[in-house]
Amino acid sequence: MDIRLKRSDFLSELAPMQGIVERRTTIPVLSHILLRAEGDSLHLAATDLDVSLTSWVEAEVATPGGIAVQARKFIEIIRAVVSDEVELALESENRLAIRAGRSRFKINGLAPEDFPTLPRVDVEGATGVPFARVKGMIGKILFAVSTEESRFQLNGALLKMGDGRIELVATDGHRLALVQNAMEGNGAQGGEGVLVPRKALQELQRFEGEAEEISLTRGEHHLSFRLGRREMICRILEGTFPDYERVIAKDNDKHAVFDRRQLGDAVQRVALLTGDRTRAVRLAFEEGSLRISAANPDLGEATEEVPCEFDGEGVKLGINPDYLSQFLGVAETERVRFDLKDENAQCIGTPVDGADERYLCVIMPMRI
């Protein structure tokens, strides 16, 4: 392999690869990026065996070839050099020379044959959705994806497409986030939906190209996301996602409306006096106001009142301030509404006059 390419173009396609490669792995090749030069382009690939990402960049290819290089160090080198162009040349099967301006590097690598075979998904039946919409929807449910590896069916979000709608749902058992929007066409991923792993959602969030359309295709065991030059393929999570519509309360008859930023700031201030082991604040809803309080025997106590639109019998409940803050941080609207019932019932948060067709966050109460 002997090629020349623009550093800025190369770096823009290299950067997303860094989130895919495994940093702590017993399989060394999974910490590598595969570089393969052919035709008039350099193809890049990274995988952790569950999520893979491929892309390409235009290049002057004098001699085709390939090598797998250690991702973190290779990206650091390309980012550090100051030349507009970078030259890559294989000195041997496992050694790559990098030339950029006056800089010279030689790094060891692995033969391309050692790199795992990447899954393929047939592009037939793909569904196109504006990427800005998908990215915005992911941001509104990602915080609710479980991080407990033992609950593998909750380690991702349920994606449903069909009947002119796209829907994403995530839950960790303590809260649930659901966002739904209209889309053109009926889509090809109807039915029960697919479970998209958390890592794939996180990496999609880092993609750029909001003006573009992302193409989604479901295979037998994998899901493909195509955006411009990039294709991310993730393994579909196995397991049954909870019947979330049955979980969402329909009889919460008390409603409170707040200024979103004012409420979020107050919650964060009061939460300063919550302990790490008992992460909870008490919410006391009264006519026209909400009193937020926290008490910690080791630290002290805090109280703050926030004005709100609330009528009816008062309600008190305990809630995790982090769950509340995460919802308020992504709701986007100036005002939010909480639907309540009593101290044992879930709190359902929704934006007031939000841009989404449907968006809600269910937070289960805590005993204080």
Textual characterization of the structure:
The chain is an alpha+beta fold. It has three domains: 2-114, Roll (DNA Polymerase III, Chain A, domain 2), CATH 3.10.150; 127-245, DNA Polymerase III, subunit A, domain 2 (DNA Polymerase III, Chain A, domain 2, Roll), CATH 3.10.150.10; 248-363, Roll (DNA Polymerase III, Chain A, domain 2). Helix content is 17%, strand content 43%. The protein contains seven helices and 26 strands. The strands form three sheets. Strands 5-1-7-8-9-6-2-3-4-17-16-15-10 form a 13-stranded antiparallel beta sheet. Strands 14-11-12-13-26-25-24-18-22 form a nine-stranded antiparallel beta sheet. Strands 21-20-19-23 form a four-stranded antiparallel beta sheet. β16 (222-227) and β17 form a beta hairpin. α3 (131-141) crosses α4 (198-206) and α6 packs antiparallel against α7 (321-330). The longest helix has 11 residues, at 131-141. The mean pLDDT is 92.
In short:
By secondary structure, the protein is an alpha+beta fold. The protein contains 7 helices and 26 strands. It has helices spanning 7-14, 71-80, 131-141, 198-206, 244-247, 260-270, 321-330, and strands at residues 2-6, 32-38, 41-47, 51-58, 60-63, 65-70, 85-92, 95-100, 103-110, 127-130, 156-162, 165-171, 175-182, 194-197, 213-218, 222-227, 230-235, 254-259, 281-286, 289-296, 300-307, 309-310, 315-319, 335-340, 347-351, 358-363.
Give the helices and strands, then pairings.
Elements: E1 2-6, H1 7-14, E2 32-38, E3 41-47, E4 51-58, E5 60-63, E6 65-70, H2 71-80, E7 85-92, E8 95-100, E9 103-110, E10 127-130, H3 131-141, E11 156-162, E12 165-171, E13 175-182, E14 194-197, H4 198-206, E15 213-218, E16 222-227, E17 230-235, H5 244-247, E18 254-259, H6 260-270, E19 281-286, E20 289-296, E21 300-307, E22 309-310, E23 315-319, H7 321-330, E24 335-340, E25 347-351, E26 358-363
Helix pairs in contact: 3-4, 6-7
